[in-house]
Structure formats: C-alpha cells, structure tokens
Amino acid sequence: MHRRYGLLAILTALIVAAGSYDAYMAFHQSGLPFSFHIVDAHTAVIEPIPGTPLPSALHAGDRIDLTASPPATRIAIIRAARTENGVAMGRTYPFVIRRGGDLVMVPVTSIATPESGASVELMGADEWAAMWLFVLLSAIALLALWRGRDRAAAGLALWASASLAGFAVIFMPFDDRVGLGVELAGWTFFLLERVGFYITVEFIVGSAFTARTRGLWRGGLLIVLVAAAVVAFGGPVVFVATGSAQLLRSPYGFAMTASYLPPIALLFAGYRRADGVLRLRLRWMLWSSVVFVTGIFVSNTPILGYWVSVLGADVMPAIALGGFLYAVLRHRVVDVSVVLSRTLIYAMTTSLVLGMFALLESLIERSALGRDAGLLLELAVPLGLGAGLSTVHRRIEVTVERLIFRRQYRTESALRAFAEECAFVTQPEKLLDLTVTQIARHTAATRVALYERTSDGYARIRQHGGSALPALVAADDLAFVKLRARNAAVDLDDTRSDLGPDGYAFPLMVRGSLLGALVVGERPGERFAADERERLFGVAHEVGVALFALRALESEVQVRECKARVLVAETCAQASEAQARAMENQLLEARAREADAHARESALLTALSALGSEATK
C-alpha cells in the first residue's frame, strides 16, 4: 500500500511538473521568423508569418535547398516542421537558398513570439488555448491516476500523461544532435499516447465484440502505429543522414493522424451496438474524439495555412479535452470514484457572479462615472448592480441545476416524493414491490433488493434486476453488523459480506432495531454521490417505518383473529359444559327415579312377603 502511494506521488509530481512546464512554454514560444512548405524531397518554399517581418536577405517564395543545408539547419527545420516551439531562441542557422542556378547562404536567427503586429491577437489566442489544453490534460491524468478504478482509467491516465510528457520533451529548446534526440523521444511519448487511448476505448466497448474481433482491431492498430513510427522516426533520421525530406512532407503527416483512427472506429462500432443508456454516454466521447483527431490532422497536415495549423493544434484539442472531461465526470464513461459536488459548483458560480459584477462596477466607475459624478449616482450604480445580483445568481443556479445536475434533481424529487407517499400504502406486498421498482427506475441501479429480519437471519423478500442475491443472510453477516452498529449506509465494496462487493446497503432501522436492509447496486461505471446516498438512506428509513407499521398492523389483525377464535372456543366450551351439566342432572334424576322405583319395589316385595306370611298362617 505504501509503495503504491509512493509511486502515485512520484507520478503526480512528474505530471504536475510536465503540465506546468508545458503551460509556461505556451507563453514563451520561439522559432524561425518564417514558415515553410516542403514541396519535394529536396526543396522547401519560404512563406511569411503574418505580422512577422522576414529577414532582409529573404523574400517570400524563396526556395530552400534542403540537401545542401548543413545538419544543424536540417535539425532546426525538423523541429520547426513538427512543432513551432522547439527551436532555441537567438540561435543562428545557415540556410542555403536557391535563386536561379545559384546557391546563396543566408544566416537566419530564431526569434521569440512577436509582441506586435497583426499576429499578436492570434498568437495570444493560441497561447491561452494551449495553456487550457495542458491544464485539461493534467486534470484528466491526475483524475484517472488517483481515482480511476478500471483498465479504461489506466489507459486514460497513460494517454494524458504521455501527451504531457511528449509536449514537455518537444518543447525543450535543444538543437544539433540533442535536438534530434529530443524530437524522437517526444514522438515516442506521442505514439505511447495512442496506445493509452486505444486501451481506454477497447475496455469501454470491447465487451460488445468477440475475442477474435478485438484481436483484429489490435492488429489494425499495430499496423498504423508501425506506419506512424516509420514517419515519426524515419523521416527525421533519413533527412539528417541523406538530406531527403520526403517523409517530412504534409501528406505523410496523415500517417501519424491515422494512428488515432482504429480506436475512433472501434468507438463508433461500439456506439452502434450499444443500448440507449450507453449510447448517451459514448456520444460525448465519440464527438470529442472526432474534434480531437481533426485538430491533430490540421496540425500534422498543414494544408490550410500556418495559422489554421497553429490554432487547430491547440484550440480543437482543448475543446475536445473539455468534452472528454465532461464525459468522464458527467456520464462516467470511465470508472472514476469522484463526484461533482453541488456545494463546490454553486460556490464557483457565486464567485463567478461576484467577480463579474465587481468587474462590471469597476468598468462603469472608470468609463461612465468619472471623478465628477455626483454622490447619488455613485450610490445608485452599486445599488442597481446589487439588486440585479440575486436575480442573475438565481438564474445561473437554475441553469447549472438543469445542465449539470438535471438527472440528480429529478432523481431526488422522485425519491423524496416516494419517501413521503410510502407511508400511505396499505398492503405490505405492494409496498415492497413499489420500493424496488421505484428505486431501480429513478436511480438506474443495476440491482435493488430488500431484506427483512426473520428468526433464521435476514431473508430476501424482493429483488429487481441483477444476479440473484442470497435468499438468506446470517444475522451476524458483517454488512448487517455494520448496519446495526452505525445506522448508516454501508459500502459493500469495503465489506466482506454475502451480499457481494457491489453497491450499498441501507438500514431499515426502526426504534433502534434493524428491521432489514435496502441493497442498491451501483450504476454501470458510476458510483453514487454523497447526496444520492443520503437520499436513499432517507427512503430506506421511511420504507422501514412504513413496513414496520404494516407488519405491526398485520400482527394486530392476527392477534384479533386469535382472540376471536379463542372467544369462539370458550363459548363452545361453555356450551359443552352446560350441556354436560344438563346431561349429568338428567342422569342424576334418572338415578333418583331408579332408586325410588327400587325402593317402591322393595316395599312392595316386603308387603307381598308379609301378605304371604299371613296367608300361610
């Protein structure tokens, strides 16, 4: 565990260092005072950069003899062709210019970013876009590194980290052989970046394909990676060694762009096979990938001009990375255990609104009021802004709620309504059915189950979706022990329980006694936020109270029925006893009559005996 965190700390430091260096270099660019277009293996045509004057000895359209240029100049050409920020500032390179049949040696000194001219605004936009690009890459890398929980997150971390490292290496202002080595090392990271992106995509949609199909996709990736490696490594080496710049021409830049096509094609194929829910999640990833690769294509194949290539290399990938980050955080296309905090988002919107109003007030004071404005006007302006602050803030919060937390808002409203209404269900079986169906519907959980206490433990009485959970769980199962001890939600991923490692268990606690548990599985590739768990805890409590009341009512009805049966039995017993007593009295009377008859018979016999005796005498 300590080694893992130590490795994460080292990787984090490297990512932060690379991202910071990249962002710094975005505002400290240097390069040649012109751009050029390689028209064949031995010739390049000079093209002016808008807003940057050409050296006095050069003219637009001059042809550079690439074969006759010295090795140091060739390496500078390689670095300028691959990235506009890799040439050391203030270094002079001899360029061989072909004019007619003559070769002219012209010294060219590299310059920093122009501070004036028509290109300043475009360069400024490019610098800020590049900085935003590196910030987003750093955020994605750190998020996937620390909070990622599957192979897709590992691939995403590799993709973002390798991209940051590649830019950091490429931006190192070295020349000669060291500069060539830096160029090749940078492209090693860029090719590794493609591998990380493919790992992410394959893990997300790979389950829709057979193992053989995935093998074919990997083979296609390997082919285009080999082609890209030939262009990325072979082009500079061949040019420096022989003077042939054939592999540095714009059409060959498509080979490096094509290395992104297999993962994007795989993503599109998986999107077509996905269901509605997964399609919604993949849509952002797919469109962001298209924008990202379009930016790389424009950068690697500068057929639309210098500034289109420069801006496309930074602006379009920055937009795409924003889409990637939104897809990860909002739609959870990659399993990361992080949630968007409403408190943090609302605090950010509040700060944004306050900052905007403070800026607006400052601008009004400087531009409209002036020093001679009256006191009433100076008081009216901030009062008017303050009056509009709450309205604007409220509208922004509503917009944030609808755009970012729309699903959470609907889920909370539905669960809150069910928690209030479940107490009015009159049948326990209906309450159990409604509970699992409503929670599964509004949370999109893969599995929802209810357990209830019995004499043998906790029995599963309802389940909706997912593989079947155990029908009976021991009373001293660790999950139920935690539920009784804490009266709080239990993360099954951190608990060894027969309920499995997926999801959360919520207590049905009533009067300090655990009546049962509500088990809710995680959404595919997404964990429940803290406010969602709190809402489910409240629903479980209300369902537990309602179930306890219905079970108590059932017990009361059963007791009443038992009492009625006892009363009927007692009445029958009393009737039987009265009947027995009547029969006993009748028997006694019969015996009395029999005794009386016997006495009369004895008296008669005695009288007859006496009469017989007298007659004998």
What does this structure look like?
With 617 residues, the protein is α+β, with helices and mostly antiparallel strands. The protein has three domains: 2-90 and 111-329, no CATH class; 342-404; 415-554, GAF domain (Beta-Lactamase), CATH 3.30.450. The chain has 16 helices and 13 strands. It has helices spanning 2-26, 71-82, 120-147, 151-170, 176-205, 211-242, 253-258, 261-273, 276-300, 306-329, 342-369, 375-403, 406-421, 428-443, 478-486, 530-616; strands spanning 30-31, 35-40, 43-47, 63-65, 92-99, 102-109, 111-112, 448-454, 457-464, 472-473, 490-491, 504-510, 513-520. The strands form three sheets. A six-stranded antiparallel beta sheet has the order 10-9-8-13-12-11. Strand 8 and strand 9 form a beta hairpin. Helix 1 (2-26) runs antiparallel to helix 3 (120-147), helix 3 runs parallel beside helix 10 and helix 13 (406-421) packs antiparallel against helix 14 (428-443).
Following the backbone from N to C, one meets helices and strands in this order, namely HEEEEHEEEHHHHHHHHHHHHEEEHEEEH
The separation of the N and C termini measures: 135 Å
Strand order of the largest sheet: 10-9-8-13-12-11
Tell me roughly what share of residues is in helical segments: 55-70%
Biggest β-sheet: count, sense, barrel?
A: 6 strands, antiparallel
Number of strands: 13
Global morphology: rod-shaped
Q: Any idea how many domains?
A: 3
Note the total helix count: 16
Share in β-strands: 5-15%
Which spans of ≥5 residues are poorly predicted at pLDDT below 50? Answer: 115-120
How confident is the prediction overall: mean pLDDT? 80
